Amino acid sequence: MRRSLLPLIVTSVVLASSAAWTFFQGNDPGVGMTSAAEKLIASFNDEQQQTALLPYDTPKRVDWHFIPKDHRKGLQIKHMNSEQRELAHDLLKAALSQMGYDKTTTIMELEKLLHELEGGKGSNIRDPERYYFTFFGKPSTNGRWGLSVEGHHLSLNFVVENGQVISSTPQFFAANPATVKNENKTGIEVGTRVLKVEEKVAFDLVNSLDGEQQASAIIEDKAPREIRDAGSAQPPTAPAAGLSAYKMTDAQQKMLRQIIREYAAAMPKKVAEARLEAIREAGFRNVHFAWAGATEPGVGHYYRIQGPTFLIEFVNTQPDAAGNPANHIHCVWRDMNGDFAIPIDG
């Protein structure tokens, strides 16, 4: 039997918040990512290299999505040997924070649960080893290269230039079930909630708003089915909607910051700090919080948080594979200056 190296993370991933932006610890990940990528590529045979290595300027670099697909760019974990899988996970660890890595591997492991809950339907695509690594250009500390790690409910995209991470978006995470509610044979515990903070604190925030604030924040009575422009190379450029952080109380601003930090903290210190510094420089008062749909769990709901430099979108409207309503989360962080290190106006 093929040994899976995906760690089974069965506890909820909750990052304690801090009042300051100086939460993160660690070193610049670009050099570590490059070294880990070089080691993984060196372990590939010729056929694997042809599958995993593409030119930097290929259109496939900006072709991203999180839906289950029969075919994707890159080399599947399934088609790596045990040593290569270890090296692939070393690369993930270099590219993400510990929290980001835990969320990523939990999302992968949830494929086992989907396979069980669906009674084996779609068994060819419900597979925790069906995640693809793709390199764009040659990893080097001199020059520019890209990385995609993608599969069902996961899309991570990076550009590294001269040993520095210059782009880390789109960053997409999803969870089905959002909260594990059914006993199962996979070993994933009931109560596992990989995207807990992203949802719970947002509910806390919207329900803390007074009537006047909610009138600004709630933009639609019904939640949209999906995040906007899913799979598009660039984020939607519509102006920010909803309630300005400037019109929130200190306690509400603290919750808003906690949500933003939770998304940013999937990345290593330098990347996360750069995101938060950009928000601060653009003015936190210019960040807006918008909500659509129900303000309680179990009914479809959606929010977005947008500032001059970033966009967060979150939606939970679909039932999970066991039929529990509104228990299937999609969420994304995008760069309003341009994803994939491509300026929006370029």
UniProtKB/TrEMBL annotation:
Entry keywords, A to Z: Signal
Protein name, per record: DUF3500 domain-containing protein
Species: Maioricimonas rarisocia
UniProt signal peptide: 1-19
Pfam families (UniProt xref): DUF3500
Cited InterPro entries: DUF3500 (IPR021889)
